[in-house]
Design brief:
With 64 residues, the chain is mostly helical. The chain has one domain. It is 77% helix and 0% strand. The longest helix is centred in the middle third of the chain and has 18 residues.
């Protein structure tokens, strides 16, 4: 079983947020991205490309 810090798990959480966005579930987008960001920062670090992408997506989602 993959853990919270596994790259596939982190990527899948980001993809879930994208699916929520496509479905118009904006509140769920924010929650999914917040969780993904916490895990990315914890397991990958603040400077990792995926962490930065998730942070940017979360910023955009909260402005929408």
């Amino acid at each position: 079983m993959l853990g919270a810090g596994d790259m596939d798990t982190l990527t899948t959480r980001c993809n879930l947020a994208t699916a929520y966005y496509t479905a118009g579930r904006l509140a769920d987008v924010v929650v999914a991205l917040q969780r993904a960001l916490r895990n990315c920062e914890k397991y990958l670090g603040a400077d990792h490309q995926l962490t930065q992408t998730v942070r940017e997506n979360l910023d955009a989602a909260t402005l929408a």
